[in-house]
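A protein record pairs a chain with a discrete description of its three-dimensional fold. The following entry can be read in just this way:
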Amino acid sequence: MKLLLLVQDEQRILLDRFYSEIASQFDEATVLRLSSDEQADLKKYFKQNIKCEDYDRIVLFLRFKKEMKQVAFLRTISNLIFLEHDAYQNYSDCKYKGVFSKHYKKIPWVRVLTSGYTVSKKLQSEGIDAVFIPKCYDDALVKNLNLERDVELGFIGSIKHKTYAKRKQLLDTLDREDNLFITRTNSGKEYVETLNRIKFFISADVGMGEYMIKNFEAMAAGCVLFAWNQGEQENRALGFKDMENVVLYSSIEELRDKLNRLREDKERVKLIGSNGQQLAEQEYSYKKIANSLAFALKPDLRVPSKKRILFFHRYSYS
């Protein structure tokens, strides 16, 4: 099978290794990085650079806000797949609520690889060909360095964007009242070393319905992960077990109660950290998820209506 993977040229996190792992799963694979301007005019980019008939699957991992404006062009691609890490916004109280569903239904043959189990089930119930492919972490970079964990409660990441309003509210409360250490770091070595200083990593994916990448990174670094509870289905799909390999909470009061219990039980702390690290390493490495992604691409796609698609052999690629 021949794969074409189109990705963003500039992303907050470096995913080159993940793309390489995906490419390694196929007989032939091409990864192209598109600038913001190129993403905004896919018709022009394809005409100048791509022959669709050369590939069995064409996967887009691009900015949704640019992608959604180009439905007329996207409907001309019969072997199209979307890889999407933000589809949880389809079911959250934000400007994109319901927008992902509407977009996908305009291209009814498209397969959508989403990073939330519950999100994928909801999309499936709407008639969309959705497949759950979890987020993952760079296992070559993020490791338990066995450093002294001199920060009891910590969080690393962004809280400024509107998407993170509920996250910010919770973390600000813990900052004021519970001495939570909140910081941002450069990607790479500084980030990993800072993670390794944190004993209890406080994740606050409030209202998102799925777990962000930082959860897996914190576990892989040996932190005891305190994660906002995204529900029984999501936890079961990921193998998250409360007070065994992760600490789940649905309120600040529950977080504080479990934190106080763990402060008195060092063996339980050690066990949760070890089990969480093992889960991340075994199930959420780049290679593991790249394999799952490749498997999800191989089944036949839905057949587009001939009335709705113009095949690319009609275009000139001079």
Q: What stands out?
A: The chain has two domains: 2-136+288-314, 151-284. Residues 262 and 269 are 6 Å apart (CA to CA). The domain at 151-284 is CATH 3.40.50.2000 (Rossmann fold).
